[in-house]
Amino acid sequence: FSNLNIENIVVTGAFNDCVDMSYGNYNIGNLKLTQCGDKAISVGESSIFKGENVQIQNSKVGIATKDSSLSNVNKVEIFNTSLCAAAYRKKQEFYGAKININKFKCDKNEIYYQNGSKIKIINEL
């Protein structure tokens, strides 16, 4: 139930998700996330996430958006992750999710979206 504006987030060595957002609106300028044990960015439960410049390294999942949530990212660079981006429904009381990325670079180029969810990449770097 948050409405947050954050200029910079740096997380290194989280055992689980590096940034986990639920039930709110989140505007974050710069994110530098390294060695996230699960998701670098997790957006869920009807949240809206806007990120300007995102750098992700050595994590299991780059950006996961689920359960009626929306992620809008201007620029994201992802290296050494198993899955770059995922959009899906996890809980039955929600719908799918949507990710929009303006500038996208991921060394594995692996994305996953479930029926009813969408990932839109405008430009690949």
The chain-level structural class is: mainly beta
Oligomer: single chain
**Uncertain segments:** none
* Beta-strand segment tally: 9
Spell out the key features of this protein.
125 residues, mainly beta, 9-stranded parallel beta sheet, globular
General description of the model:
With 125 residues, this protein is mostly beta strands. Helix content is 0%, strand content 71%. It contains no helices and nine strands. Strands 1, 2, 3, 4, 5, 6, 7, 8 and 9 form a nine-stranded parallel sheet that branches. It is globular and about 30 Å long. The chain starts with a strand and ends with a strand. The relative contact order is 0.17.
Fold topology:
Elements: E1 2-12, E2 19-22, E3 24-34, E4 39-44, E5 48-66, E6 70-88, E7 98-106, E8 111-113, E9 118-124
Parallel strand pairs: 1-3, 2-4, 3-5, 4-5, 5-6, 6-7, 6-8, 7-9
Structure described in brief:
By secondary structure, this protein is mainly beta.
